[in-house]
């Protein structure tokens, strides 16, 4: 099996060298880009497994790159940025990023985030082997193709949104706690990750609920977790 290919999008040479040296030591393949336009060409032509993305690029804000990539790819995107405000993290997650690491960072934490993203890729691959089609009201999930539709119209979900929806669908009627969901999707249960979970659930609801303020598919149990309701 080929070693995972990582696209490092970073214009700071010192940070780029730190990341690529770490990837070298750990046996990852990588390509680098210092500008947004170069990053888009690499993403299309090389089809990397994961993108490590700095937001402060000279020719385009990283948030725009996330949105552009998400319009055609479910490739995991890990933001590595000096922007440390919660608002920046939430904006990146809303745009479609899968994870967010603040500079300065510990290389061991970076490697841990990479391993989690790679496990997610394997999970999606395993799910694609399933043949069952889940139907609940107007919601349909074809596990074999990874496609989701609502009332016959295909929905475009990010990898994390799809993972969350599949987890809920396989546990219809059950209340899944925050920790259970975090351990399954993020492979961790840190209190700080609950904020990310809420952002993803809010975005998922916007896509599958006719009225997200009065949801019929995904019910919130305040302070506990979430449950997918069975639509008769």
Properties at a glance:
232 residues, alpha/beta, 8 helices, 12 strands, WalR-like, phosphoprotein
Task: Draw up the topology in text.
Elements lengths: L4 E5 L3 H14 L2 E5 L2 H11 L3 E4 L8 H9 L6 E5 L4 H10 L3 E4 L4 H21 L5 E4 L2 E4 L4 E4 L2 E3 L3 H11 L6 E2 H8 L7 H16 L9 E4 L3 E4 L4
Parallel strand pairs: 1-2, 1-3, 3-4, 4-5
Antiparallel strand pairs: 6-7, 7-8, 8-9, 10-12, 11-12
- Rough shape? globular
> What is the level-2 CATH architecture name of the largest domain?
3-Layer(aba) Sandwich
Distance between the termini: 44 Å
* Sheet/helix structural class: alpha/beta
Sheet having the most strands: 5 strands, parallel
Question: Could you name the CATH topology of the largest domain?
Answer: Rossmann fold
Overall residue-averaged pLDDT value: 87
Query: In the CATH hierarchy, what is the superfamily of the largest domain?
Result: Response regulator
* Alpha-carbon Rg, integer: 18 Å
**Highest CATH level, the class of the largest domain:** Alpha Beta
- The helix content is 40-55%
Strand content: 15-25%
What is the succession of H and E elements?
A: EHEHEHEHEHEEEEHEHHEE
Number of helices: 8
Sequence stretches where pLDDT stays below 50 over 5 or more residues: none
Protein name: Stage 0 sporulation protein A homolog
GO molecular function: phosphorelay response regulator activity; transcription cis-regulatory region binding
DNA-binding region: 131-230
Modified residues (4-aspartylphosphate): 54
Structure description:
- This protein has 232 residues and is an alpha/beta fold.
- The chain folds into two domains: 122 residues, Rossmann fold; 99 residues, Arc Repressor Mutant, subunit A (Orthogonal Bundle).
- It is 43% helix and 21% strand.
- It has eight helices and twelve strands.
- The strands form three sheets. It has a five-stranded parallel sheet, sandwiched between helices. The protein has a four-stranded antiparallel sheet with strand order 6-7-8-9, covered by helices on one side.
- Strand 4, helix 4 and strand 5 form a beta-alpha-beta unit.
- Helix 6 packs across helix 8.
- It is globular.
- The N and C termini lie far apart (44 Å).
- This is Stage 0 sporulation protein A homolog.
- InterPro entries: CheY-like_superfamily, OmpR/PhoB-type_DNA-bd, Sig_transdc_resp-reg_receiver, WalR-like, WH-like_DNA-bd_sf.
- One of its GO terms (biological process) is regulation of DNA-templated transcription.
């Amino acid at each position: 099996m080929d070693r995972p290919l990582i696209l490092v999008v970073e214009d700071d040479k010192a940070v780029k060298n730190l990341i690529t040296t770490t990837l070298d030591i750990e046996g990852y393949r990588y390509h680098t880009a210092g500008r947004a336009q170069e990053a888009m060409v690499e993403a299309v032509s090389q089809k990397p497994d994961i993108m490590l993305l700095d937001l402060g690029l000279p020719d385009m804000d990283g948030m725009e790159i996330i949105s552009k990539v998400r319009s055609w790819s479910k490739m995991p995107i890990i933001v590595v940025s000096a922007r440390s405000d919660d608002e920046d993290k939430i904006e990146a997650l809303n745009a479609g990023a899968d994870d967010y690491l603040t500079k300065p960072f510990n290389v061991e934490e970076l490697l841990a985030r990479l391993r989690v993203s790679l496990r997610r890729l394997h999970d999606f691959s395993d799910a694609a082997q399933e043949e069952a089609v889940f139907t609940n009201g107007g919601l349909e999930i074809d596990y074999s193709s990874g496609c989701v539709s609502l009332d016959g119209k295909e929905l475009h979900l990010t990898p994390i949104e799809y993972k969350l929806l599949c987890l809920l669908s396989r546990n219809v009627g059950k209340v899944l706690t925050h920790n259970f969901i975090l351990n399954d999707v993020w492979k961790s249960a840190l209190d700080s990750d609950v904020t990310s979970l809420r952002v993803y659930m809010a975005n998922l609801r916007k896509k599958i609920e006719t009225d997200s303020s009065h949801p019929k598919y995904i019910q919130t149990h305040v302070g506990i977790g979430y449950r997918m309701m069975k639509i008769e």
